[in-house]
Amino acid sequence: MKQIPELYHKKVLVLGLAKSGFTAARILHGLGAFVTVNDSKRFEENPEAQDLLNLGVTVICGRHPEDLLDEGFELVVKNPGIPYTNVLIRSALEKGIPVWTEIELAYLISEAPFIGITGSNGKTTTTTLLFHMLNQDEKKPLIAGNIGTVASGVAEKAVEKNVIVTELSSFQLKGTVDFRPRIAIITNLYESHLDYHGSIEDYNASKMKITQNQTAEDYFIYNADQPVLSAYAAKSKAQLVPFTLKGKTEKSISADDEFIYWQGEKIMERSKIMLGGQHNLENILAATAATLLWGGTKETIVRVLSSFTGVKHRSQFIVSWKGRKFYNDSKATNALATKSALEAFPSNVILLAGGLERKHSLEELRPYMDRVKALITFGETADRFAEFAGECGVPVIEKVANMDEAVGQAVEYSADGDTILLSPACASWDQYESFEIRGDAFIDAVRKVTEAND
Questions:
Q1: Which CATH architecture has domain 316-452?
Q2: Burial 137-154 (b: 16+ CB within 10 A, else e)
Q3: Which strands, in side-by-side order, build the sheet including 372-377?
Q4: 215 CB-contact burial (10 Å; exposed 0-12 / middle 13-18 / buried 19+)
Q5: Alpha-carbon gap, residue 378 to 115, rounded angstroms
Q6: What span, in angstroms and rounded, lies between the C-alpha atoms of 73 and 11?
Q7: Is-contact 365 385, C-beta < 8 A?
Q8: Which residues pair with 76 in a beta bridge?
Q9: In whole angstroms, how far apart are CA 444 and each of 19, 310, 326, 441, 449?
Q10: What is the dihedral of CA 201, 333, 363, 244, to 10 degrees?
Q11: Does the structure show a pLDDT above 70 at 454?
């Protein structure tokens, strides 16, 4: 781990704990900073705060004092989920105090280079796929970021021969200053998280911070089939590596109906790729390009693509039972993600959807609702989903209270040859703490139904 002299004896406020805040506070303390942690959870119920206090970190729990910044802090490191409308964050920015997320700290302390992956959809699949490709090619990758492993904790232990493959959200990227990945990937850009960012312009600008510090020595891989992303990419100083699904190109990476290509040469037949869906082909092209740019081999790419079946909660195949196939796509937290899932199934879908009400439009789903033979809906958006499905002519619409009821009704309305798909098009927080917990509830409900009726 690199030492950062600029942080020695610097007064730093870490706002919000969870995994990233705890790790950042511990590392900053080890670097010699004077660290204060402020978290809303009460100290008695906060083991992370208790551990930090034992290390000598100042801890303020159970409240966010509005005069906290009067203590003369020179830097704030915030949990990515804390919005910029937060009183303390607003005040820090007004005072000219830098506000980071721990991704910036991870970059500064890391001896290893970064590959950064972001996008509205597909970033977890792309990150995981790229990690597997590099790992099988013995490139010593480490995996980190929004995928579940705190980047600064990974960077703390990384050495020069490693490469840190990092999934990055717009929340994390917005709080970066010097972060510079050697390879940056944006899978796609769609309207998302406007409740946090306030505007599509701020959301897009936050995503584009992934390439803002890149130079001509670096690479920027992006979706050339999206005009908005191509326009943003033109402003990057990195070497541009566009990908397209619109047919073979002699430059960069591309795909047609039969093959994927690198610089006009065939890599493999699409029919041999295990990961299904048009949306996943974008992820495959991005990961393949990054692997080749990092010195990976085509042979390894073919081997991985011939066996990789997906990431948990991302169009994850669960089981085939009495002619019905069950898929868990709980990560689909917006309509665009659910649209991508529906594209993979041409007909006879029993769709389980609904969740937190963020007023997102469902119109992206309309052209694909003729594939849905029954909608089982739940959560805060249940009424709006039911009304929308009725407008689209879905023949069966049921509103339910929980996942067990949803799976039970889906089985009741399904037949041999049908697909039962959880793809909510909404965040989970009205009923579940995370999309992972929601997906696990679906898997558990499927297990109970299939085991009870074998």
A1: Alpha-Beta Complex (3.90)
A2: bebebbbbbbbebbbbbb
A3: 316-321, 324-328, 419-422, 349-353, 372-377, 396-399
A4: exposed
A5: 38
A6: 5
A7: no
A8: 13, 99
A9: 26, 19, 12, 5, 9
A10: 70
A11: no
* DSSP code for 118: E
The amino acid at residue 56 is G
- What CA–CA distance (Å, rounded) separates 434 from 261? 37
d(CA 331, CA 316): 10
Calculate mean pLDDT across residues 320-346: 90
The ranges assigned to domains in the chain are: 10-100, 103-305, 316-452
Q: Indicate the pTM of the whole model.
A: 0.78
Binding-site positions read 119-125
Residues 6+ apart with CB under 8 A from 275: 125, 129, 283, 284, 305, 308, 309, 310
Structure tokens at 242: 């566009």
List the binding residues for ATP: 119-125
Average pLDDT over residues 50-78: 94
- Cβ distance 279 to 331 under 8 Å? no
Token pair for 237: 């100083």
Q: Whose structure tokens read 């600029």?
A: 6
Half-sphere exposure of 172 toward its Cβ, with a 13 Å CA cutoff?
26
Q: What is the pLDDT of residues 352-374, one digit of tens each?
A: 999 999 888 999 999 999 999 99
Token look-up 């010097």 returns 178
Q: What is the residue-averaged pLDDT of the chain?
A: 94
* Lookup result for tokens 């409308």: 85
| Domain 10-100: CATH architecture, name and number where available | 3-Layer(aba) Sandwich (3.40)
Superfamily of domain 103-305: Mur-like, catalytic domain (3.40.1190.10)
Q: Which two tokens stand for residue 67?
A: 């005069």
- The helix/strand/coil state of 184 is strand
Distance CA 375, CA 410 (A): 8
The DSSP secondary-structure symbol of 370 reads: G
CB of 283 closer than 8 Å to CB of 222: no
Query: In this structure, what token pair is assigned to residue 74?
Result: 């020179």
Q: With beta carbons less than 8 A apart as the criterion, state whether 20 and 101 touch.
A: yes
